[in-house]
Amino acid sequence: MDNLRNIYEQTKYILLQKIKELFENDCSGHDYWHSLRVLNNAEKIAKTEKCDEYIVMIAALLHDTDDIKIFETRDYENARRIMLDCHLTDSMIERVIDIIWEISFKGTETVSPKSIEGKIVQDADRLDAMGAIGIARAFAYGGNHNRAIHIPDCQPNMNMDETEYRNHEGTTINHFYEKLLLIKDMMNTDCAKSIAWKRDEYMRGFLKEFNDEWNG
Residue 178 sits in a domain of what CATH number? Predict the structure, then answer.
């Protein structure tokens, strides 16, 4: 058991150094600290589920390393290179790649991962898009991409498929209705569901206050 824990901690240490370098200049809310928070969420959820915690840890830390919003990579080349540097087996690498592919939000084409490890990482990532940190990240991303905070006549675009969602350029406030207020009901695990309720309520309270102030 001690040997397995040592391997876990050694791999985690290497991955943290790799992603810290990879996300060094990111200001979009998908930075090193986001990956670290997702890991913390994932480790917490993993304690409540029967799962491979080693795979959960790796996938949580690497889930954004080839995100199309940040990188122009092919076939998850950043994630694959980092895992090869950690001397992971081919089967482990493919398990992690499957999780990374499955967990992303794709509008109406979003899927629930097949494995419990994927479900945990998906929940962990979604939780970081909610609550106070989720609000901060939404406006950081919007500002980073020159998006307006709010345009009263601009209505949310609901029920977008993956292509529409990827190409959509709406306001930050609309993003709450197009994604962030939907993910509470998309959680996979009981642990994440209980956390999501509180964070969802916080976001709804923020939006009410925002609209009250906007309308004077």
Answer: 1.10.3210.50
pLDDT of residue 4: 85
Q: What's the farthest any 2 CA atoms get from each other in the chain?
A: 61
Sorted by sequence, the CB contacts under 8 Å of residue 167 that are 6+ apart come out as none
Long-range contacts of 178-184 (CB under 8 A, 24+ apart): 179/105, 179/129, 180/129, 180/130, 180/134, 180/138, 183/105, 183/126, 183/129, 183/130, 184/130
Phi, psi of 188, deg, nearest 5: -95, -40
pTM given for the model: 0.94
Do 107 and 160 contact (CB within 8 A), yes or no? yes
Yes or no: say if 78 and 22 are a contact pair by the CB < 8 Å rule: yes
What total number of domains does the chain contain?
1
pLDDT per position as a tens digit, 138-187: 999 999 989 999 999 999 998 888 888 888 888 999 999 999 999 999 99
